């Protein structure tokens, strides 16, 4: 996959955030501050605008630009969290102009590591990590077992979806939702949901 | 004098804190930033970065914040700074309003960063990240 394909996928992630902004913000309104979808859409709209006006031939520069625009424009916690993920990815892929399926494992691994460090969160804290970690582990396992590209992607999305479902059963330990304690049970986490949507968009654009 | 940066999710809360510190600690280098660049509730890393640079001196900078995501943006802003500045900046876990005001008062009477950090331990509240 060339830089322009990566660019196209990121633009489509932005479109999906725009389409789902009310849904994500409603999820956030139940347990947080009700702006997650609008924040994400706003951040990615800056990315889309930049991508429409600039060409990139280095994946490191492309991912770094996404990181900076999300960090600068999202506003909520998701800005520094997703921004850190893209920043970590940018360091790894600096100087590269092509990605293949085996790079997906590294991308998810770096995202997970970056987001865990930035948010000081772990699995079962009811955050992005509850979708991202199972997705990463699924990709890692499937690549080790030489599964087909389609299978790797489909299982990744299924793992993330299951992770999102699981967030309904657990107590929020991070972010604004943690103030609700046990009352956060029953609600699905908006951050895990946006991560699922991002991963699903990646799959839908490749398969 | 120790520089103080106060980061709130609300522009009005930032203004309010500044109103008090200006009265109580007129000469202390204090900047309060709040809200996003388009006036929503949230924090803006670029304004945080500018604020740190503006109050920075060799005496160091203390950063106070209201809610967890302000801390994440504060951490990122500090990471963007040069190495020598970085080591002279602390993000403080303390009650926000009390922390900013008392730190500003101490800075105003030329107490050093270590003294102020020690005082802040009394109002540490184990903030949620």
TrEMBL record, chain A:
Name assigned to this protein: Dihydroxyacetone kinase subunit L
Key words of the record: Kinase, Transferase
Domain of life: Bacteria
Organism: Miniphocaeibacter halophilus
TrEMBL record, chain B:
Domain of life: Bacteria
Keywords linked to the UniProt accession: Kinase, Transferase
Protein name: PTS-dependent dihydroxyacetone kinase phosphotransferase subunit DhaM
């Amino acid at each position: 996959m060339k830089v322009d394909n990566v660019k196209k996928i990121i633009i489509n992630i932005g479109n999906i955030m725009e389409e789902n902004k009310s849904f994500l913000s409603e999820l956030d309104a139940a347990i947080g501050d009700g702006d997650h979808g609008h924040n994400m859409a706003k951040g990615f709209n800056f990315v889309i605008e930049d991508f429409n006006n600039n060409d990139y031939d280095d994946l490191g520069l492309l991912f770094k630009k996404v990181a900076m625009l999300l960090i600068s424009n999202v506003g909520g916690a998701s800005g520094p969290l997703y921004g850190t993920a893209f920043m970590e990815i940018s360091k790894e892929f600096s100087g590269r102009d092509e990605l293949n399926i085996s790079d997906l494992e590294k991308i998810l691994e770096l995202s997970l590591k970056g987001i865990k460090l930035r948010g000081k969160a772990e699995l079962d804290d009811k955050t992005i990590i509850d979708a991202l970690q199972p997705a990463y582990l699924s990709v890692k396992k499937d690549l080790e077992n030489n599964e087909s590209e389609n299978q790797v992607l489909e299982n990744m999305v299924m793992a993330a979806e299951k992770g999102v479902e699981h967030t309904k059963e657990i107590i929020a330990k991070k972010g604004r939702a943690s103030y609700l304690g046990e009352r956060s049970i029953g609600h699905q986490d908006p951050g895990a949901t946006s991560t699922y949507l991002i991963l699903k968009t990646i799959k839908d654009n490749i398969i | 004098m120790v520089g103080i940066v106060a980061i709130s999710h609300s522009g009005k809360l930032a203004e309010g804190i500044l109103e008090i510190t200006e009265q109580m600690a007129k000469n202390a280098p204090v900047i309060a930033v709040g809200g996003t660049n388009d006036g929503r509730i949230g924090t803006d890393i670029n304004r945080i970065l500018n604020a740190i640079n503006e109050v920075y001196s060799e005496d160091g900078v203390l950063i106070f914040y209201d809610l967890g995501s302000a801390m994440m943006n504060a951490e990122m802003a500090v990471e963007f700074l040069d190495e020598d500045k970085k080591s002279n900046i602390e993000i403080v876990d303390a009650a926000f309003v009390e922390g900013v005001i008392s730190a500003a008062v101490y800075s105003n009477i030329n107490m050093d960063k270590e003294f102020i950090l020690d005082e802040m331990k009394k109002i540490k509240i184990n903030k949620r990240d």
